[in-house]
Amino acid sequence: VTEGHRFHCPEPLSVASAQDYEGLLERQGRVVAHFETRRGRLVDGLLRAAGDDHIIMPEALLDEVNSLVEWPVVLNAQFDDGFLSVPQECLILTMQQNQKYFACTDASGRLVNRFLLVSNLESRDPSVVAHGNERVLRARLSDAKFFYDQDRKRPLESRLSGMEQVVHHNKIGSQAQRVDRLAGLSFQLAPLVGADPGLAQRAARLAKADLLTDMVGEFPELQGVIGSYYAQHDGEDAAVADAIRGHYHPRFAGDSLPSNPEGLAVALADKLETLVGIWGIGLVPTGEKDPFGLRRAALGVVRILVESSIPASLSHLLGQTAVGFRPDWAAAETLKAIQDFITERGRRYLRDQGFDANAIEAVLAECPGRLDQWRPRLKALEAFMKGPASPALASANKRIGNILKKAPTSLREYNIDQLVEPAERALAQSLSRVGPQAQAHTAEGRYAQALEGLAELRQPVDTFFDEVMVNAEDPSVRENRLALLAALHRAMNQVADLSRLAT
To answer: What is d(CA 436, CA 431) in angstroms, rounded to the nearest whole number?
Structure first.
């Protein structure tokens, strides 16, 4: 015996067998028992009700509403179009979070004054249910409009003095001190991303001011978004308003980057400052614990530097950031640990992008700090790996590396006149052509050409190892051959450590 819907099926149901359970519950009990089946009906009902409008259906909201109902019935409802003067992000958030409603937009993405709600029963008069929900939503939207109107009575800039009373962290200082660091760092980073330094600095100065608004107090998710609207209302430059909105991006995996250069500068400064500041007081992420979102900040740094092709050394950026704190804030080993942490997030990011794991290790071994070069080097390396010379050169490179590990640490440049064997002279001649070409191509970012040129070394390298004894008895001959191999090793590894490709 089981129970069905509490209104549509008040009497108990007798179940003859397990096979009958789901069908009986749906036919007589008015309960769709299977989660995915019920979810499919919910989505179908929402799409039908939306008609020509677009319905906003976040996965989390769909799952939550689907878990709240047994017999989903979608109803149409409306709200006063006067509320559309409030930023639509506020209205949408109010509908979704407070009421579990689904907002609708027109073809251009602008919010319309209708919404869809999901009832858990088939009412004899659906309009009564709809009107009741409309009254509830009116009260919620009135609160949002009140907050919005009150906040705009004061410009964002007037809130900056209040930041001195807001503690960022008791070991780091106030939000006002943090804003000072962000403004200075954004000004320095602006030329790297093609931003106006003054506008980037202004955006950084105002970026956190909306934390003291009533709207963000009610809806913390609107940080940056509502600040952008208030900046526009205050007459700030459009680039400043866009940067305030964008500086939190990317907020999660797959999220967009800031939409303008000034936003990129502030976003990068914000994430670097978080990493250096929080790491500097010893709050390193451990296991699943990461209360300050350092992993998210690190991934944000990776994505901004990689996807925006910002030509900057990561170690230099971290050093610039540390200057904004006390002189003794971050020791060299601390900054190195932060760089390693960011690189590890970058390694995972590149894997998610579909790059070969060995190729990633090969590139990171030679180019850990210039993130803007990661993808072009990887693309060139993966193309090279498909060529016939790649396996042999990778194997030879690994062999050379193992030999050089046992060699003196301070090898001089090889002397071509001391190379007596035909095979070693042939290798030196090939290297004299290929090495400078590869170096020039690499310096100009022509990584594919640099790697293609290495194919010329395959034959002389193979012949060298077949015919030449590296560890000759004569110390001067042995050292000269080791110096030749060291020069060859440098030439082969300008784009990536080819030994990482050897299987």
So the answer is: 8
CB atoms within 10 A of CB 112: 16
Torsion (CA) 331, 337, 341, 344 in degrees, nearest 10: 140
Residues 6+ apart with CB under 8 A from 60: none
pTM above 0.90, yes or no: no
pLDDT tens profile 378-430? 999 999 999 999 999 999 999 999 999 988 777 789 999 999 899 999 999 99
Torsion angle, CA of 492/495/498/501, rounded to 10 degrees? Answer: -160
> What's the DSSP call for residue 111?
E
**Taken in order 25, 29, 35, 38, is the CA torsion positive or negative?**
positive
Q: How far apart are CA 98 and CA 96, in angstroms?
A: 6
Nearest Cα to Cα of residue 358 among 378, 373, 386: 378
Amino acid identity for residue 405 in this structure? K
Q: Which residues contact 92 (CB under 8 A, 6 or more apart)?
A: 56, 103, 111
User: What distance in Å separates the CA atoms of residue 429 and residue 460, rounded to the nearest whole number?
Assistant: 9
Q: Residue 371 and residue 316: Cα distance in Å, rounded?
A: 12
State the residue for tokens 């610039």: 320
Residues 6+ apart with CB under 8 A from 226: 87, 89, 90, 151, 210, 213, 215, 216, 219
